[in-house]
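Need the bound structure for S-adenosyl-L-homocysteine, inputs here:
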Amino acid sequence: MLLTITTTQSPATDLGYLLAKHPGRAQRFSLSFGAAHVVYPVAQDDRCTAALILDLDPIELVRGRQSDSGSEGLLDQYVNDRPYVASSLLCTAISRVFGGAMNGVSRDRPELAATAIPLEAHLPVLPCRGGEPFLRGLFEPLGYEVVAERLPLDERFPEWGNSVYFAVTLRRVCRLSELLTQLYVLLPVLDDDKHYWVGVDELEKLLAKGAGWLDGHPARDRIVERYLKRDKRLVRQAISRLEAEEAPDAPALEVASEEDEHRLESQLAAAAPGEKPKRLNDLRTEALVAEVRQRRARSVIDVGCGDGKLLAALLKERTIDRLAGTDVSWRSLDVAARRLRLDTLSESQRERVSLFQSSLTYRDARFAGFDLACAVEVVEHLDAERLPAFEHVLFAEARPATVLLTTPNREYNALFEGLPEGRMRHKDHRFEWSRAEFEAWASGVAERHGYSVTFTGIGAADPGLGAPTQMAVFTNGGAS
Ligand code: SAH
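Answer from helper R.:
Posting the output first, comments after.
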């Protein structure tokens, strides 16, 4: 397993300072799964190449993989391509052997470490699951010139066709730390078979290493999915954090993450003795389904439907013959489609439900024609100055007979352990309202558009601070 790094920036042997490995000496480093060697096949003033060679011990590798071997056959544990190809093991070696350089640190050449120089990385055997288009899609948007040559399965038998392996050369004028960091993240993504389990550490590592280039990358989601081994919870968390970083109008206040919101909300153990505590999210779904039933709504639209949990619950309601979900986020809609198993629904079920992408602050004829609309935990994600547009779209244009609208009750936040005073429950919340603020806004909306409105709480209420979630039920008596 081999990676070479070349520069032509004179004096090219300064590469030795950047990597903190002397060009005149071969060096060996022990790793838990074998050894890494660094040698310089070329060390001239106008061109210098450092080679990182991994010498893996397949037995150690299997020992290290014990917990990861669940679905693989015993044979596969011993006979695999790991020792021969560039993979996440190579990345582990990069960080062990070239860690300082990857972090942009150089004791002897700090300015050079901060300078873009012509660099070339060569990987003679790189597994590319997804083929050349995927390989190019990863590196070209970052400004690399990519030269890829597909390797045959077996040179002696060209008729066997091609393997998933490529000989790859990547060229770019950039800082050495950028090249190493991007290889570190993207090689395992190409290989799509990390040798260790992923956990929250990996997510943090990905976000740290991806800083400055991953959020705007066109293949961002696939990178995140593969890097985190498709662990849904981690992937979702990573993407929402990348998006929050990307959002130009994200609130300045650094507030709780989505995970924190769930953790906070699951403190609300509104359980009867002997019963499992329910999460606030589930309590909301139950309250909304009950309300929809009571209103005998035949057609329902969930605006800002997110990942479709409420839609999935409503789909089970036989009395609803038309159900729609809409969200501004394609990603959420994608999760919702999978949750609802849209692709496997029977023809008649398929006709009952639809998902579409749209923004709630722009008119859209598809919002109209429903008995009831749900807007669950959505308004607080809109910028306050966009609220009149939202109000117009939903209450003046779409005009369902009933609107069920929920939002956090800020007063209740004082009861959440671990939520510092003044912080909001979620990073993307633009505001959180007290009961009085919510009621003032909602009453104004009702009055302006000929609705009446009542208020209730969801989740166990505190006598002084109210319930964690507040809900407004708007009705217009069916007049449109
Ligand atoms: N209703 C869901 C999701 C709440 S999170 C639930 O209760 O679980 C808020 C949702 O509003 C997100 O899915 C976000 O993508 C969506 N959203 C935010 N701004 C929006 C806009 N302008 N138009 C449509 N959806 C929006």
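Comments: Residues 2 and 53 are 5 Å apart (CA to CA). Residues 304-306, 309, 327-329, 332, 359-361, 376-378, 381-382 surround S-adenosyl-L-homocysteine (CB under 6 Å).
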